[in-house]
Automatic annotation (TrEMBL):
Signal peptide: none annotated. It is found in: Cell membrane. Pfam families: Mem_trans. The chain crosses the membrane at residues 6-22, 34-55, 67-87, 94-117, 123-143, 190-209, 221-241, 314-333. Its main location: membrane. It is a multi-pass membrane protein. This is AEC family transporter. Keywords: Cell membrane, Membrane, Transmembrane, Transmembrane helix, Transport. It comes from Cellulomonas shaoxiangyii. Belongs to the auxin efflux carrier (TC 2.A.69) family. GO terms for cellular component: plasma membrane. GO terms for biological process: transmembrane transport.
Length: 334
């Protein structure tokens, strides 16, 4: 239990420092967006490349990975359906809400827990790989498309080319061939820095030879800044005074918290039991499923200017809840 509290307490201290920096504006008014951009475009891609390049891709074929992937996919699907069909949210808000419900803090909390609680850092790899190779690319594809549509709409309102012949952005988009749209989505996705770092790491891990370790040292050095900067950004965002429109919708937040803190741990335990996992293996998949919403979700939301309040509040609430949840998981299965 002490290891769980130590890991969470350390992260809480860094978030508190970020809150103080934001509260007293030590780094200026635009510090949080700038730090978020650094995390998004530089530090996180470096961290992912260096981590995935040394990952054992055979983990993707294990029962542990199957449980992790299935439980995460089911939770993401449930979140997307409820947000879209019941709460009637737009595509970008559905995407951020789905990430808040299913994208866990595998790096900042999961890795320390894997080392100190489970004594096996590789148990976090299936979670990282699924999030980086499935959830993140899918989310970025939708968010990039929404950002492009927003730019077209702004151009049309401003009287740019889209409005030159009296048509709105929706009319212009409607006549664009599907092949052009697909190529644009693929181009935006493959030029995303996080996806590039992920793909490069997977390719390096799949090579039949190993590059000299000195090659990875710059990536390790820069990537080491990703976790603390993400936590500082999270704390600074918490310090931003809320306006009437800055609170997360209650229904969206309740859905994300319930799925993140209750449904996915229970689902991972049930699926793991059904597939014959027991002991430390069952504890590992359940503990990884009980992790809180990743601070990266807030970074992504800030990057694409959608759902910042939901990402921030879901990260805060699920981080607070993960302490008792992880204690229950460890006491029950440990």
């Amino acid at each position: 239990m002490g290891a769980v509290l130590t890991a969470l307490g350390t992260m809480g201290a860094v978030v508190a420092v970020g809150w103080l920096l934001g509260r007293y504006r030590v780094l200026g008014e635009r510090a949080a967006p700038v730090l978020a951009r650094v995390v998004f475009a530089v530090a996180t891609p470096a961290l992912l490349l260096g981590t995935l390049a040394h990952a054992d891709l055979r983990l993707l074929l294990s029962r542990t990975a199957a449980v992790t992937w299935a439980s995460t996919a089911l939770v993401a699907l449930a979140a997307a359906l409820v947000l879209r069909l019941v709460l009637r949210r737009g595509a970008a808000d559905v995407t951020v809400g789905t990430l808040a419900s299913s994208y866990v803090n595998a790096g900042n909390i999961g890795l320390p827990l894997a080392v100190y609680l489970l004594d096996d850092p590789v148990v976090v790899v299936p979670t990282l790989l699924f999030q980086l190779l499935v959830l993140a690319p899918a989310a970025f594809t939708v968010l990039d498309g929404a950002a492009a549509a927003r730019r077209r709409a702004d151009e049309a309102v401003a009287g740019g080319p889209a409005a030159a012949d009296g048509r709105g952005a929706a009319d212009v988009a409607a006549v664009v061939p599907w092949a052009v749209r697909v190529r644009a989505v693929v181009r935006r996705t493959l030029t995303n820095p996080i996806i590039l770092g992920t793909l490069a790491g997977v390719v390096l891990a799949a090579l039949p030879w190993d590059l000299p370790e000195v090659v990875f040292e710059p990536f390790r050095l820069v990537g080491a800044a990703a976790a603390p900067l993400a936590l500082l950004t999270f704390g600074m965002q918490l310090a931003v005074p809320r306006t009437s429109g800055a609170s997360a919708p209650r229904a969206d937040l309740a859905l994300a918290v319930a799925l993140r803190s209750v449904v996915q741990p229970a689902l991972a335990w049930a699926l793991g039991t059904a597939l014959g996992l027991s002991g430390s293996a069952l504890l590992a998949v359940t503990a990884m499923a009980a992790l809180p919403t990743a601070q990266n979700v807030l970074v992504y939301a800030m990057q694409y200017r959608h759902g910042e309040a939901l990402a921030r509040d879901a990260g805060l609430v699920t981080t607070l809840l993960c302490v008792p949840v992880l204690l229950v998981v460890a006491a029950t299965l440990g």
